[in-house]
Amino acid sequence: MISWANRAPWRRAVNARTTLLLCAAAALLEGFDNQSMGVVAPRVVAEFALSPGWAGVVFSSATFGLFVGAALGGRVADYFGRKRALVVSLFLFGVFSLLTALATGAESLALARLLTGLGLGGAMPNFISLASEAAHADRRVSAVTLVMAGMPFGGTLAAVMSLGAQFGMSWRAVFVAGGATPVLLALLMVYLLPESRHPAGAGAHAGAARAAAVEPVRAVLFGSDRALTTLLLWAAFFFTQLVLLLMLNWLPSLVIGLGFSRTEASLASVCFGLSGSIGAVVLGHLHAGSRRRAWVAATYSGMAAALVTVAAVGGTFWMIAIACGFAGIFIIGAQLILFALAPLYYHSAIRGTGVGAAVAIGRLGSVVGPLFAGGLLASGGGSASVLLAIVPFVALGGGAAFALTWRSQSGAAI
């Protein structure tokens, strides 16, 4: 039996594990939705006879919603509380994903995806912040990296579910599953998710939260010697997401352009995603140690080396599969580690705003990356030239992340 003296630490431990588990589930669902439209795109385009212009609108509408939702979601949470903001965001994300399954044309599909993106964007900065606050101070980077590893696993689940088309399953089933599950998770969170250890509206933190909410966003992000920290974080997020989304969207086509078959290209993409999920967990533990600066340099150097290797490797499939696996480890790992590091640079009262802004800037990079690759290929560039052309972006993102390790972590202990 647990004594009264030991009950409080025991309850904190249970609350922390519950929070991390629920946040990991939210990350998995976010990854599922991020990949859902991509894996059903050919069937959606065929059913609605979408022109290239409308297809671009439909596929980019969720990304725009994610940008706006991330910018607003963290800000709202700093005032009303992260649990409330996360529950509402997940509920909206689920409802509008269900409406995606009911779309009857290009306009309704684009609107549903835009609104789904708003919910998705609002959820991410809050489950990142909640996970960071739930973990012990010396395990935050590794714990949040493990939570965020749910995202690529969610994307893999979406790809597996899309294979149901071979058995007559409609593309709409992907969005029914991707909509009903977040609604159920939101309801579970109402009863099971502990509030942040520093909830808005409670105790001494209430005044700080309200002050942060009414303080201009510019002062929150750039005041009190935070300007350089914020700009470095934004640069790291922007360039890392640029490279990540370019690879997620274009890797199969790039592998085909290197002389491999469609099946081999699909398997190379699986190697990229699964290796990234598993490798990110290992990198998270390494970055959580005392040699973070060295591991940041090693991670981005490994990213550049892997891209050069993918561009140069030829011959047998196993060589390209291994090269794509290493690329996934470093590229996906770098992004998940940035998610874990971002909350450490903002104290609790403004953490949602700081993390939300960084996530939003990263979303801009996720738009630029695929467009950059498409432009290079349209102008006559080959797969190898695209892979080599993004190495300078890796250098810029890595330089910003490396410089960030010299900045003080004002929220590391709270």
Short synopsis of the structure:
Helices cover 81% and strands 0% of the residues. The protein has helices at 4-48, 52-80, 82-101, 106-134, 140-148, 150-162, 172-192, 203-214, 217-222, 227-257, 262-287, 292-312, 317-341, 351-378, 383-389, 391-404.
> Quick one: CATH class of the largest domain?
Mainly Alpha
Average pLDDT number: 81
Largest sheet: none
H/E series: HHHHHHHHHHHHHHHH
Annotation, overall tally of beta strands: 0
Hey, roughly how much beta strand do the residues contain?
Answer: under 5%
Would you tell me the structural class of the helices and strands?
A: mainly alpha
**Which architecture name of the largest domain does CATH use?**
Up-down Bundle
Topology:
Blueprint: H1 4-48, H2 52-80, H3 82-101, H4 106-134, H5 140-148, H6 150-162, H7 172-192, H8 203-214, H9 217-222, H10 227-257, H11 262-287, H12 292-312, H13 317-341, H14 351-378, H15 383-389, H16 391-404
Helix pairs in contact: 1-4, 1-5, 1-6, 1-7, 2-3, 2-4, 2-8, 2-14, 3-4, 3-7, 4-5, 4-14, 5-11, 5-13, 6-11, 10-11, 10-13, 10-14, 10-15, 10-16, 11-13, 12-13, 12-15, 12-16
What can you tell me about this protein's structure?
Helix 10 (227-257) runs antiparallel to helix 11. The chain has two domains: 1-214, Growth Hormone, Chain: A, CATH 1.20.1250.20; 219-414, MFS general substrate transporter like domains (Growth Hormone, Chain: A). It starts with a helix and ends in a 10-residue tail after the last helix. The radius of gyration is 21 Å and the shape is globular. It has helices at residues 4-48, 52-80, 82-101, 106-134, 140-148, 150-162, 172-192, 203-214, 217-222, 227-257, 262-287, 292-312, 317-341, 351-378, 383-389, 391-404. The longest helix is centred in the N-terminal third of the chain and has 45 residues, at 4-48. By secondary structure, it is mainly α. It contains 16 helices and no strands.
